[in-house]
Amino acid sequence: MKAIQTVAAALAAAVAALAGGGCATSNSPYRPPDEPRHGRTVYFNSYDLQQCAVAMIDSMLADRALDKKLQRQFPDRVPVVDVKEIRNETYQLGLQLDSIADTMRTRLTGSGKFDFVDREMERVIAGEIADDMDSALVDAGAIADTGSHAAADYLLNGCLKEIRDGDDRVSDSYYKLTMNLWNKRTGKIDWSGEKELRKVSERPAVGW
Q1: Residue 157: in which H helix or E strand, if any?
Q2: Residue 78, Cβ neighbours under 10 Å: how many?
Q3: DSSP secondary structure letter of residue 141
Q4: Reduced to 3 states, what is the DSSP secondary structure of residue 85?
Q5: Domain 57-201, CATH
Q6: Helical segments of 26-178, H only
């Protein structure tokens, strides 16, 4: 009987220890979006995308030469930007770079330095206005006027390039994101920024 009690006590202690350990470590699949990914590959990932977006935002907001150009050209209003394609010239053909542009648009709009338009959404809005005009249920005085939308002063585009190197044991990828802010009135680039990343992965040597 005493032996049984001893075994039961030991099992209870083990269960308590496991329970305590479970409380100490989180099993949640969620992680902060700015937490680095400790992968062993050289592939461009979500953390890299965020690094690039933040670098471009910080560069644009801190550029004093750009500030002077904006003050001179747009003394009485906020310039409007239309975000174009960020080309993917990496070996990852399925890599989606829209999130870089989305993050830049969100942060720069919040800064008050730029306003943004979205041509795809403008087509949707135009269709909605046309539907309103055709509907007898909509107050004609409340329908948005055609031709009242803002025109873009700038086009923002970019390109992500990759140079890959290595051998049987080492994979080495160099990435460079370049973004340009094109002035539609002058055809000049009023701001340009770049962010470089290098990722190296080594395969362990197999020994006997």
Answers
A1: strand 154-166
A2: 14
A3: G
A4: strand
A5: 3.40.50
A6: 46-62, 64-73, 98-111, 119-134
Write out 38-56 in H/E/C secondary structure: CCCCCCCCHHHHHHHHHHH
pTM: 0.72
**φ, ψ for residue 101, nearest 5 deg:** -65, -40
For residue range 122-149, list pLDDT tens digits in order: 788 778 878 887 887 777 777 777 777 8
Name which of 155, 207, 143, 149 is nearest 185 in CA terms: 155
Structure tokens at 145: 């006027």
**What's residue 196's pLDDT?**
94
Nearest to 104 by CA among 51, 153, 175, 66: 51
Q: How do the domains of the chain map onto residue ranges?
A: 57-201
Partner residues linked to 164 by β-bridges: 173
pLDDT digits (tens, 9 = 90+) for 140-177: 777 777 777 889 999 999 999 999 887 778 888 999 99
Q: Hey, what are 136's tokens?
A: 């007898």
Model confidence at 99: pLDDT above 90: no
